[in-house]
Amino acid sequence: MTINKYQGKTKEEAVEKAKQELGAGVVVLNVKEIKPKGMFKVFKDTIYEVTAAVEEKERFVNPLLQPEKVKSVHDSINMAADEEIPIPSPKKERQEERDAAGQEVRPMRATRKESASMGLEQRLENLSNILEKQLSVEESRGEEKHEPQTVSKEGLPFIKMLYRTLLENDVNEKYVNQIIDEAEKVLHNGSSVDQILSNVYQKLILKFDQPDTINLSGKKPRVIFFIGPTGVGKTTTLAKIASRYKVDRERRVAFLTADTYRIAATEQLRVYANILDAPMSIIYSAEEMNDAIEHLGEYDLIFVDTAGFSHRNDEQCADMKRLIEGLSEEYEKEVYLVLSATTKYKDLLEIADIYKEIADYKLIFTKLDETITYGNILNIKLYSGAKLSYMATGQNVPDDIEVFNTQKIVKQLLGGR
Ligand SMILES: Nc1nc2c(ncn2[C@@H]2O[C@H](COP(=O)(O)OP(=O)(O)O)[C@@H](O)[C@H]2O)c(=O)[nH]1
Ligand SMILES: [Mg+2]
Question: How many A from CA of 230 to the centre of ligand 1?
Answer without folding.
Answer: 9
